[in-house]
Specification:
The protein is of the alpha/beta class. The protein has two domains: 63 residues, Signal recognition particle alu RNA binding heterodimer, srp9/1 (2-Layer Sandwich); 68 residues, Signal recognition particle alu RNA binding heterodimer, srp9/1, CATH 3.30.720.110. The two termini are 32 Å apart. The relative contact order is 0.17. The mean pLDDT is 92.
């Protein structure tokens, strides 16, 4: 198991259905499964990756503060950003075919990535990207008309 510094946790009303959908729509692979008991499905915990990279935890609404957007009128307080090794357009097409709502079509961004945004069946917003070109900080600043303060961007 890789050990990223930050790992997102995404909560679903039906996490088992989410596992299947995330696999079909986004190509995520199950890397860990702790099944909740039949009488308490909130005890489940799953982890998924894409292409063996990254980790996202998938769980149930196990606490008053852990809710699916479907349980709070569709609101999202965060967004998972997934960097793909390539094939962004095909990825978007697969997500659309699996029933994702495409909130933003694939488009090149000022910082050198091509991205799209998709909404899953419970309302979580996901952003997917692939790097298409290197952009200097000066180029990006010119594109947006504002300074960028970054410790690791030349």
């Amino acid at each position: 198991m890789d050990s990223p510094t930050f790992t997102a946790a995404v909560f679903y009303r039906d996490p088992k259905a989410a596992l299947d959908w995330l696999s079909r729509a986004f190509g995520f692979e199950l890397t860990m499964a702790i099944e909740g008991t039949d009488d308490d499905p909130t005890g489940c915990h799953y982890e998924m990756s894409v292409g063996g990279r990254g980790r996202v935890m998938i769980g149930a609404e196990w606490h008053d503060q852990t809710r699916s957007p479907a349980s709070v009128g569709g609101a999202n307080t965060q967004n998972c950003h997934v960097e793909l090794a390539g094939g962004l357009d095909a990825h978007c097409a697969a997500a659309r075919a699996a029933g994702a709502v495409i909130a933003a079509e694939p488009a090149e961004q000022f910082y050198g990535d091509r991205t799209y945004r998709a909404i899953d069946p419970e309302g979580h917003m996901w952003t997917f990207s692939e790097h298409v070109r290197d952009v200097s900080r000066a180029e990006a600043e010119a594109a947006i008309g504002a300074p960028i303060h970054a410790t690791n961007w030349a």
